[in-house]
Amino acid sequence: MTFDERIAPHYEARYETPEGRRAAELEEAIICWLLKGFSQPASVLEVGTGTAHFTRWLSDEGLAAVGLDLSTAMLAQARMLDGVPLVQGDALRLPFVDGAFDLVAFVATLEFLEQPRQALAEALRVARFGLLLGVLNRWSLLGLRRRLAGLFRHTVYDAAHFYGVGELRRLLWSVPNGSGRGRVVWRTTLFPRWWPWPQARLPWGAFIGMALITGNRVQKEER
Fold it and tell me: pTM of the prediction?
């Protein structure tokens, strides 16, 4: 049995716990804020869809959403939940023509890719308007706890590369055809419960929401 086969049957259950529901709601809220930076996007491809939790949510938000994943086990779970088109494929060789989607999203996926720069370049090939990223923050309390936990037991994050805001932004600008084509906007969320704001332009929230807006009118960032 592969690692994916072990975790796939239980992966969606994380969103049914109080902490999982809170995290999903905050992450969805920051993705909603990022979507406002694009001029009426109609379609989105989520790369690394897993059990398609966020792909289904994007569909509920009115986008024509398609989920892609390399894992047979994850896609099997996603198909049991139904609701969105799903494709098995590699992030480095997306089975779509140039400009097939308005947006391409990576939600808790980039951290697990061995060649993230190449995956982002491929995503830009099929995205007309730009990219949406939701990434675990290296410089957060939650990120630190997850990295420390891996020192004592096997976890799903053992192979993950956590990013900070600066490193993630530099990665985007390093992608061929990424630099100079638009604008990067970002916020973080998943602060401790006592924190007064659900999201902020501060570099230590546990979840980084970042967008590279490329192929349409760039709207003025909210203050």
Answer: 0.90
